[in-house]
Every structure is written in structure tokens, then in C-alpha cells.
TrEMBL record:
Entry-linked Pfam families: Glyco_hydro_1
Protein name: Glycosyl hydrolase
One Gene Ontology biological process: carbohydrate catabolic process
Regions annotated as coiled coil: none
Native source species: Enterococcus caccae ATCC BAA-1240
Active site: E380 (nucleophile)
Highest taxon, organism lineage: Bacteria
Keywords for this protein: Glycosidase, Hydrolase
Assigned GO CC terms: cytosol
Entry-linked Gene3D superfamilies: Glycosidases
Record family assignment: Belongs to the glycosyl hydrolase 1 family.
Signal peptide extent: none
One Gene Ontology molecular-function label: beta-glucosidase activity
């Protein structure tokens, strides 16, 4: 067992991360409207169904189950859950606001007060326990009405709807909440626009012109949110949020090296270049030529807004790395967090086939910090696994502890490399509905929730072995990882 000395700065943010659509449930309570997540069926075929030519955001409860509708009932049990987070020692908690609790359809002028009051309670409960809220404004749950009636983020009207929503929540909570992020995993649209852009093939997701236009509209909306937030509270820290997958060429062949460079630019850097540097990168035209994008609809003040109101930090998820092989006649491919790649023979994989690469996290941190010199925040990282409970609902999840230990050691090494790292919020700190499959059996949490894929169970909460391990990690500021 490794006993490396770790080094994290005083005030380092330790916590966990969730998303409203995956744990709250109560999907029609207190005036909440339907979101795109509410229309996503559960099961291993979820992405295949969403990516089909015929899917059009209709909910068919005779044909599918919808686990997000119930989640883990955090809406009614948030005090219990936050108390468990406090028991672990969290000094921060990343969660999202459900847009449809505030604006049920998304295009209303007046917000839903019941939704605002709910998040008043969640924020106050966190602060009562000394937990700093870290809030994602839009986490894969835009109003379904905006996806169906406006076609999602390709429509420029979305900027105004988001500005109205962001203004309301930043004004309401901006004096209490310091840390924010605008869009969750914004670059995920490169492979799957349904989640972050609200577009499916029936509404234009198969055309990259729509994807890039939607990104532009989101970049402008994000810049407006940064502007609004800083005007409300100059101390507010507003970040972007991306998926980061450290990318390797499978060999030294220059063709594969160039393909790796291009994949890094397109997936890892395009959205951060726009939101962190505030301008489009030089390689954008090459991307447009490659994907058949002629030009974007750009408003008169858009580029100035993007340049003046860049994000304060970079939040990112890291689960796996990716390998590139353009020269192979047959590829041995693997799956991953939207981005797969070819099999890396030096890495093991999770039960869902995601290749585990702690050293890749250190590389990711160095690559991002060298490129941008902005503070970094790892806001998702974790191991999805099938947990087996004993007769007392206790889980001996040493595999999860080992995964997290090795990634925290990599984080510490990156800090020693000179990286400015703000914090760490492992994903799914409590078991919740998987975004990729809608399953409960793909578990990430320190807390076991008694609920299965068919919605059966008490939903009672139980501490896993990793619960007390992570508590010790936080108590020692990452010094004791045994």
C-alpha cells in the first residue's frame, strides 16, 4: 500500500458532487416543469435511444421507465443527506439547480417562488454545517419546452432565457454562495448534444453547424452570467466545466501524433479556449473545414462580451484517459465518458469499460494549468462499480478506496509540480441515478442507497467503508490515505 506524502494547500476544498436531475426526484412537485433529463429513459440503451433518428423528446411511460423522475428522493431527504456529508467532513458540496424548478418551461418572465425557496433551504442547510455550496447553473437538465419548441441551444433566443434564469439565481443566492459554474461538461456536445445542448437528431444534432452555433450561444450566455455574478458580488468565483480526457497517441507515428493533437484541441481545449481566453482559437477554421461549418451567427457584441467576461477558474471531470490510433486497420476500441478511443494496453478498466489512469490526472492538471494559468477544480472523479451489501447493508468497497487514493496521490503530485488546485469533489458522493445508463447499479457513492434499477427498495442511506476512509482523508487534508 502506498504511503506517499501528500501536499495540499490550506483551505483546500474537499467535498462531493451531484446533479439535481440524478438525485432530487419529485419531478413534478411544487410547480417544477419537465426537463430534458425527465424525458431520458433508463437502461443500458439510454444513449442509443437518445441518439436514434426518431427520438423526439416524447415521454412514453408504457414503453420505458424513467428513474430520474424519482431519483433518490433527495428533494425530501436533503437535510439527512447533507448531515451525512457534514459527518464525512465536507467543507464544500457541488450540486446543481434544476432550471425547471425556477422556470418550469424556461421562457417565462416570472420565476417559480416554490423552487427558489427549496434552494434557499438547501443552501442554508449546507452553510449551517460549514459546507460551502458549489453550484452548477445548468447540469444536463434544460427545460424540455425549450428543447422541443425552440430546438435547444442552436436557437439564439436561448441566450435571453438563460440570462433571465442566471440573473434570478445569482441575485437570489449570490451573497451566500461564492462558487459557481455555468454549464456542466459543455464540451460533451462534441459527441452527444442531447445532454448539454438539448438537441437530438430530429432537431438538428447530426449537423455540426448546429453544435458549433449552440456552443457559441452558450459561450455568450456564460459570459453574461459571469458579468452578472461579478456585478452582484465581486468576490464571486464563476467557472466553466468540461470533461477532460488525457489523450495519448498509441505510438510515435506522426500521423497518430497529429490525430492526437487534433483530438486534444477539438475535445479538451476548444470550449475552454473560448471561455478562459475569451476568444476563438486559431485552429477553429481547420475544425470548421473538417466538419462542414461555413460560419456562425455572431451578434454585434458577442465577441466583446466573451473577451471581457472570462471565467475565474476551470472545473472539470476526470474519469479516464483516451488513446488514438489512426493507422490501425482494425481498432480494439473501448467505451468511456462519452469519449472512448482505442484500448491502452497499460491500463486496467472499470466494470463499465472505462480505463483507469490516475497518472493521466496528473498529466491533465499540468496540461490545463500550463495552457491557461487559471485555478483548477476537479469537480468530478470516481469509480462506477457494482456494490454488494452484507446483511447490514454495509459495503466493503476497497476497490473504490484504491481508485480514489491513487487519484488523490496524482493530484498531490500535480500540486508539487506547481499546479494551482482549488479542490476535489468526487462524483456521486451518494449513490444516484447514472447519467449514461439511468441505472442505480452503477454506483459511485460513499453512501449506499437501498434502491435498485427497477425502483425497488427502501431508499434508506448506509455508510460504506469508503465513507470513513474519505472522512480521514479530509480530516488530514489529504495526508492520510491509508
Amino acid at each position: 500500500m502506498s504511503t506517499k506524502t501528500t501536499a495540499f494547500p490550506k483551505g483546500f476544498l474537499w467535498g462531493g458532487a451531484t446533479a439535481a436531475n440524478q438525485l432530487e426526484g419529485a419531478y413534478r412537485s411544487d410547480g417544477k416543469g419537465l426537463s430534458v433529463a425527465d424525458a431520458m429513459p433508463g437502461g443500458k440503451q439510454r444513449f442509443q435511444i437518445l441518439g436514434s433518428d426518431t427520438f423526439n423528446w416524447e415521454i412514453d411511460e408504457d414503453k420505458f421507465i424513467y428513474p430520474n423522475h424519482r431519483g433518490i428522493d433527495h428533494y425530501h431527504r436533503f437535510k439527512e443527506d447533507i448531515a451525512l456529508f457534514a459527518k464525512m467532513g465536507f467543507n464544500c458540496y457541488r450540486f446543481s439547480i434544476a432550471w425547471t424548478r425556477i422556470f418550469p418551461k424556461g421562457d417565462e418572465a416570472t420565476p417559480n417562488e416554490a423552487g427558489l425557496k427549496f434552494y434557499d433551504q438547501v443552501i442554508d442547510e449546507c452553510l449551517k454545517h460549514g459546507i460551502e455550496p458549489v453550484i452548477t447553473i445548468s447540469h444536463y437538465e434544460m427545460p424540455l419546452h425549450l428543447a422541443k419548441e425552440y430546438g435547444g441551444w442552436k436557437n439564439r433566443q436561448m441566450i435571453d432565457f438563460f440570462e433571465n434564469y442566471a440573473t434570478v439565481v445569482l441575485t437570489r443566492y449570490g451573497k451566500k454562495v461564492k462558487y459557481w459554474m455555468t454549464f456542466n461538461e459543455i464540451n460533451s456536445a462534441f459527441h452527444f448534444p442531447a445532454l448539454s445542448q438539448g438537441m437530438v437528431k430530429a432537431t438538428g444534432a447530426g449537423d455540426y453547424r448546429n453544435v458549433f452555433q449552440a456552443w457559441h450561444n452558450q459561450f455568450v450566455a456564460s459570459a453574461k452570467a459571469v458579468k452578472i455574478g461579478h456585478e452582484i458580488n465581486p468576490d464571486m468565483q464563476i467557472g466553466c466545466m468540461i470533461i477532460y480526457a488525457t489523450t495519448y497517441s498509441i505510438d510515435a507515428n506522426p500521423i497518430n501524433q497529429m490525430a492526437t493533437l487534433a483530438q486534444n484541441q477539438e475535445f479538451n481545449f476548444y470550449c475552454t479556449d473560448a471561455q478562459v481566453r475569451g476568444e476563438y482559437p486559431a485552429y477553429q477554421q481547420r475544425m470548421f473545414d473538417k466538419y462542414g461549418v461555413m460560419e456562425l451567427e455572431i451578434g454585434e457584441d458577442d465577441l466583446e462580451l466573451m473577451k471581457k467576461h472570462t471565467v475565474d477558474y476551470i472545473g472539470f471531470s476526470y474519469y479516464m484517459s483516451s488513446a488514438v490510433n489512426e493507422t490501425a486497420e482494425e481498432e480494439d476500441t473501448v467505451v468511456g465518458n462519452l469519449l472512448g478511443g482505442v484500448r491502452n494496453p497499460f491500463l486496467e478498466a472499470s466494470e463499465w469499460g472505462w480505463q483507469i489512469d490516475p497518472e493521466g490526472l496528473r498529466i491533465a492538471l499540468n496540461e490545463l494549468y500550463d495552457r491557461y494559468q487559471k485555478p483548477l477544480f476537479i469537480v468530478e472523479n470516481g469509480l462506477g462499480a457494482i456494490d454488494k451489501v452484507d446483511e447490514n447493508f454495509y459495503v466493503e468497497d476497497d476497490y473504490r478506496i484504491d481508485y480514489l487514493r491513487r487519484h488523490i496521490e496524482a493530484m498531490s503530485d500535480a500540486v508539487k509540480d506547481g499546479v494551482d488546485l482549488m479542490g476535489y469533489t468526487p462524483w456521486g458522493c451518494i449513490d444516484l441515478v447514472s447519467a449514461s445508463t439511468g441505472e442505480m447499479s452503477k454506483r459511485y457513492g460513499f453512501i449506499y442507497v437501498d434502491l435498485d434499477d427497477n425502483g425497488e427498495g427502501t431508499m434508506n442511506r448506509y455508510e460504506k467503508k469508503s465513507f470513513n476512509w474519505y472522512k480521514k482523508v479530509i480530516e488530514t487534508n489529504g495526508q492520510d490515505l491509508k
